[in-house]
Amino acid sequence: MNKYKISVYAICKNESQFVDRWMDSMSEADNVMVLDTGSTDDTVEKLRARGAQVTVEEFKPWRFDTPRNRSMDLVPEDTDICVCTDLDEILNPGWRKQLEDAWFPGAGQATYRYVWSFNPDGSEGVVFWYEKVHARHGYRWVHPVHEVLAWTGKGLPGPTVTVNGMQLDHHPDPTKSRAQYLPLLELSVQEDPNDDRNMHYLGREYMFKGRWDDCIRTLTHHLDMPKAKWKDERAASMRFIAKSYTMKGETALARDWYLKAIAEAPHLREPYMDLAMLLYSQGNWDGVLYFTGCAIAIKQRPRTYICEAAPWGSQPHDIRTIAFFRTGRINEALVEAQKALEFEPDNERFKGNVEYLMKKVSAMA
What we know:
The protein is of the alpha/beta class. It has two domains: 6-170, Spore Coat Polysaccharide Biosynthesis Protein SpsA, Chain A; 181-312, Serine Threonine Protein Phosphatase 5, Tetratricopeptide repeat (Alpha Horseshoe). The protein has helices at residues 19-26, 43-49, 65-73, 95-102, 181-191, 196-208, 212-224, 231-247, 251-264, 269-281, 285-296, 315-326, 330-343, 348-364, and strands at residues 6-12, 31-36, 53-56, 81-84, 89-91, 109-115, 127-135, 139-142, 148-151, 160-170. Helix 6 (196-208) runs parallel beside helix 8.
């Protein structure tokens, strides 16, 4: 017998290709509510045929929090646990039991593993822990984009439970545009100029768009904000400023900002690897070896979204291979080449590196 009533809710538009996969994944729930925001394909018909309760409403002007809250309103009042997902995401089988085993009366939210991206070979890319599972009452979504759950109930929210084993995988449509993100982020900052999280996201979006000066200006402001205390996010702002200076050709300033990022969050691999890549482009092989060594020495992968795939994959070992080779240390280069190949056993370049270096080592013996 199930311990709790669990409802899944989502918003969607023109996601017919994902319906069957998503409904299969969500079938462990007691019910599934979907708010369709104006599909012109057969998304609605397919969802209803699979048993989802679908409501169709359009929202103009568009922002994410309004329909997200409207979709939450569709969840039955007697639901114990709400699970918010998107149609391009799937929960691994067995998630309901894992969630019920971790949940308890009075809990507020649940955190679980989220694979945001996958590498071309199918291995996990960016991984962090998510918190889009929550109690039915007392929560609302806020912000026009990159919306988050905010507690609006009386008193304090219930504690967050950790659901070990529960995993949500993200398999997005690569053809979907991000064009709406920048104007929505600018709106978000306009609505709440004191929100440091939105300011960071806006600066990052300027970087994505190649607006280097706007990125530098926005993220410098982020670092000056009184609420900007989270070291991981501060280090990310410093890294993005550094990248912008790199793209402007001001590599000395970029190096200084990378060093600031390392000092801000020495527990993260990303700042070390960013500086190592800058030094790699300059042929500073000893610098590459030092900073990649610092990165590899960090064994604990953080659970936050500020955790990129490359520093936790083959990248550190790949560039160490080249740095050792360029400084005449062939044995060390071979060891690193073999480690890189372990991460990507089908990578032809890595295979070639190992084969070449093995021949070099044999010739030296």
